[in-house]
Structure formats: structure tokens, C-alpha cells
Design brief:
Distance between the termini: 33 Å
Strand order of the largest sheet: 1-2-3-4
Largest sheet: 4 strands, antiparallel
Oligomer: single chain
CATH topology of the largest domain: PH-domain like
Number of helices: 4
CATH superfamily of the largest domain: Pleckstrin-homology domain (PH domain)/Phosphotyrosine-binding domain (PTB)
Radius of gyration: 20 Å
Order of helices and strands: EHHEEEEHEEH
CATH class of the largest domain: Mainly Beta
Number of domains: 2
Strand content: 25-35%
Structural class: alpha+beta
Amino acid sequence: MESLHPRIRLLWVAQAAIVAIVLGVAIAAVDQWLDFVTVPTAVQGGVVALGLVLGAVYAVRLYQVWRFELQSDALYLERGVITFVETAVPFVRVQHVDTQFGPIERALGLSSVVVYTAGSRNADVRIPGLPPARARELQDTLRDLAIESEADDAV
């Protein structure tokens, strides 16, 4: 099984920090907006600090459990902290494969591979936290395996 690049933890911690800060600002806004609600500044800061700590712990744990593997018939993924998810994506179900990277991922030197599958439920699978070269290599490999499996699936 292959793991993600360690820098993905920074991205996940940054996302948690943004959520914690937005929550703190929302609490402050409610405090200002409603006269009958008074939230002490220490509580607001505590909520933000707790959010940051929980986000960091979650990011580290998610990195520890996130794995993927290419086998002969499918792409296998294992991930999740609270709910552990195991996914098998048969190559015959792969419609197309994209490599994506947003501005923060680009700044961290990371990319994601998105595998779009036939079907409506969970029709795409994302593998985050890959170096760009590995993401392109994985994209090419998945595309080739999907094309090969079409011939095997023919009637």
C-alpha cells in the first residue's frame, strides 16, 4: 500500500485552521448581533484553540491511515478517522482520470488524482497529497489500465 506525501498534513491543518477561525468569527458576530448573548473573549479564543488542536490531531491521524494501492483488477483505497472507508474501484468502471492542484496544493508542491467512475453514487474518487510527477504517473497508469480493462469487458 502506498501512502500520501507528508506535506498533505500541512494542507489539512491549514483547512482546519480556516474552519476554526471562521467559527471564532461567527461566535464573535453572534455575540455582537444578539444583545442577550454574551460570550467571553476567553471562550471565543478557547473554541478557536480547540479547533486548531483537534484539526491538527485529525490531520495527523488521517495521514496515518490514508493508503492506496493498484492491484491487477482495481484501485484500492483505505481512509478515514471517525468512519474508516475501504473503496475498490474496478478499472472497468473508470471513465476518466484527472490531475488537479489548487493554489495551496501548488504552493506545497502537491497534486491530487481524481478518478471518475461509471455510476451515480460516489462517482469520483480523489487521491490527494501526491507529488506532481507521481500524480501524472498514476493518472497515466490508471488510464492505461482502464483502456486494457475495456477489452476484457467486451462482449
